[in-house]
Amino acid sequence: MTERCETCGNDTWAKPSLAVDAIATRNGKNGMEILLIRRGNDPWKGAWAFPGGFVDEGEDPKDAVLRELLEETGLIGDSPCLYTVRGNPNRDPRKHIVSIFYRVDVDSESTPIGGDDAAYAAWVEADVVINEGMAGDHLEVLLSL
User: Is 44 helix (H, G, I), strand (E, B) or coil?
Assistant: First the structure.
């Protein structure tokens, strides 16, 4: 029999949290540009990151990545396609968080606007981001594109 929490009814097994991140790119004047946000909160406040966040209970991760993209950049995405999954238990200082990274199509002429917990959103040249760095393991993902 599985042990259950008397308050919430969930089982008592420790679990990682599930997050999603959107990867959108376009061809810019000086090469590849990536749709990124500047994180508005810790950890990594002020760092570049792919738009993303936590999957809500009962939500399909493909729906979550499109929701997070819209909330953090104001852009509508479609056709999420699995790119990679990152799950190192130490990848985030808050707790064990597994993130599913999706390639997502967006209008390449669109202008992003930072929202929700994103302080800023923009199309950023790959070289700029590589020189400045990114939150957590996001640079590692960018370099694998």
Answer: coil
